[in-house]
Write a structure and sequence with these properties.
The protein is an alpha+beta fold. It has twelve helices and 17 strands. Helix content is about 30%, strand content about 15%. It is globular, with a radius of gyration of 22 Å.
């Protein structure tokens, strides 16, 4: 069976290695070293562009730490390389980028069942099974072919932060819809004049993340960050995303300014900061947005991000990462709607596992939403009106009724790892 994978980034290498190491013949095509995307400079595969941090390594206290352990149990090349290339970083897993990419490149090149090709792919491969893993900068003729097949692609990612419900100070909120219309689905976080002015001052002086030039062109034409809006005048936010018009608390009083939070999922375990697209550094988001009384101790399931990010519209993929309307075509990496290095590699790993079972004529395998990888698979394949890329967080997992945060997180991990070990026995 002819299997072709386009893109030798994190997801493409993960899928290719999983398949080849289990006996399948794979062709892996990448533009390197003949050409480079605007973000890449190294001829090595699986190049880490923005950071050397793979976030927390805490299996029992962090969702991304748990995802990494799930991937280790499933035989991830990405995690094997990361553990070999790690550098001191406290509780986080950070790597020497060159050692990390070199390790993966050597493993890919040494695998006899992987045929490497260096060329810019402009069409969807005509193969028994194909995987598109071309990343967030997918462009040109290939992007046009994907769009023709899948519908209009998203070409930038400007996402507002998401916080956990249990970390919101509900005593500092009230539920109401503007002008009393609707069913009070929003949590409103009021501010008085002093709180609002302190918030705006902090917002204007906060440190922003560095954007590439190609990011700036794509993003700022399409979505204005809250900190840029604030720079246009002290009251700009009060006439925009923080406007209090039509909102009254339980005492009938209208706040000076108000941030609205909207449910991110059916369970109500996660809330989106409405209209708060931002380019602040993550630490600054926590500090500055924490000046809003209801968010003083907020736990961020996803920070706001702004960068060039080509990804598929909602409800185009099956949970095995195959395309619904063409099931021999798979997608992996950030183009699927996952966000982050680890999550991108995870999608390639799972796509490889699902393809391998199909090649072997075995029954499909199911990753439940009690696991982080299963929950992310469900997320990117679900129907959503406002589909935004998602990273690993507890808010997308099947809920557990437990108020003690540390105990709850351990329960999440134990439940997840038991499920992954059971799946591993079937591989």
């Amino acid at each position: 069976m002819k299997i072709e994978i386009v893109g030798a980034g994190l997801a493409g290498c993960e899928a290719a290695y999983l398949l080849a190491s289990r006996g399948a013949e794979v062709t892996l095509t990448d533009c390197k070293p003949a050409a480079f995307s605007p973000a890449h400079a190294s001829p090595l595969f699986s190049e880490l562009v923005c950071s050397n941090s793979l976030k927390s390594n805490d299996v029992y206290g962090n969702a991304c730490g748990l995802l990494k352990e799930e991937m280790r149990l499933l035989g991830s090349l990405f995690m094997e390389a990361a553990d070999r290339a790690k550098v001191p970083a406290g509780g986080a897993l950070a790597v020497d980028r060159e050692v990390f990419s070199s390790y993966i490149t050597q493993k890919i090149k040494a695998e006899p069942r992987i045929t490497l090709r260096s060329e810019t792919v402009e069409d969807i491969p005509d193969a028994d099974i194909a995987v598109i893993a071309t990343g967030p900068l997918t462009q040109g003729a290939l992007a046009e072919k994907i769009a023709a097949l899948c519908g209009e692609l998203h070409f930038y990612d400007a996402s507002a932060p998401i916080v956990s419900e249990e970390s919101i100070d509900r005593s500092k909120t009230f539920t109401a819809d503007r002008y009393g219309r609707g069913t009070s689905d929003y949590l409103n976080c009021p501010m008085n004049r002093e709180e609002y002015e302190a918030f705006v001052d902090a917002l204007l002086s906060a440190e922003r993340a560095t954007l590439h030039e190609f990011d700036k062109r794509e993003i700022f034409d399409g979505c204005m960050p809250v900190e840029v809006m604030a720079s246009r005048g002290k009251d700009t936010l009060r006439y925009g995303m923080l406007k209090p018009v039509g909102l009254y608390d339980e005492n009938g009083k209208r706040p000076y300014a108000v941030l609205q939070l909207r449910k991110e999922n059916v369970a109500g375990s996660a809330y989106n900061l409405v209209g708060f697209q931002t380019n602040l550094k993550f630490s600054e988001q926590k500090r500055v947005f924490g000046l809003i009384p209801a968010l003083k101790n907020a736990e961020y399931l996803r920070y706001g991000v702004m960068h060039r990010n080509t990804y598929l519209p909602a409800e185009r993929l099956n949970r095995d990462f195959s395309l619904r309307r063409r099931e021999n075509l798979f997608f992996a990496g950030q183009i699927t709607g996952v966000e982050g290095y680890v999550e991108s590699a995870m999608s390639g790993l799972l796509a490889g596992i699902h393809i391998l079972r199909r090649v072997q004529g075995r029954e499909p395998i199911f990753f439940p939403e009690t696991t982080v990888c299963g929950a992310l698979s469900a997320y990117v394949s679900s129907a959503q009106a406002d589909f935004q890329p998602m990273n690993a967080n507890y808010g997308i997992l099947a809920p557990i009724e437990e108020r003690d945060k540390a105990k709850k997180r351990r329960m999440f991990a134990e439940r997840s790892l038991a499920a992954i070990r059971a799946i591993g026995e079937q591989l």
